[in-house]
What we know:
Radius of gyration: 20 Å
Mean pLDDT: 89
Low-confidence stretches: 3-24
CATH class: Mainly Beta
Amino acid sequence: xxxxxxxxxxxxxxxxxxxxxxxxxxxxxxxxxxxxxxxxxxxxxxxxxxxxxxxxxxxxxxxxxxxxxxxxxxxxxxxxxxxxxxxxxxxxxxxxxxxxxxxxxxxxxxxxxxxxxxxxxxxxxxxxxxxxxxxxxxxxxxxxxxxxxxxxxxxxxxxxxxxxxxxxxxxxxxxxxxxxxxxxxxxxxxxxxxxxxxxxxxxxxxxxxxxxxxxxxxxxxxx
Length: 223
């Protein structure tokens, strides 16, 4: 009997979680749903891409600015080259074997764990959080699973027609309260992402020179 009760309890808990996800998903505006669907379709068409990322991060009184070139190739090859800021001249890749390899500005090579603190910026993010797909999955998690409020507008940014997605976070495990993202209306490439902790800016990233479906040899993702 106790075993049956335990099994029933598991099914009930799973059912409650499923119902919660359905209810949360049902509250999402249709325009946000359509945007995320179109964004996913656009990302699926991006076999390769390369861009310049200008990232500013704040944590309390600490401040960090970094400019990198980020490159991506399906299925999940990534490379970051630090152009300016902390660790300038260094490179790091995620290769075919799923291993992270880093090269310092002095040419020293090392294999790193995915959780290695040397990969993290001031806010704790790593280059593996920089892909368009990773960002989309995070958006879907916050909007559809965690119930964060999202709204979508169409406006101009940097002389371009863009989609502006605003998310009001209410995550117990994250101090970010407000996030804004701007995507090009034609290409769906990301242009800017800002995050706030209350009234204080926590992160500001701008994407420049975004090139999609360009030749990127596999050797680029090896060190």
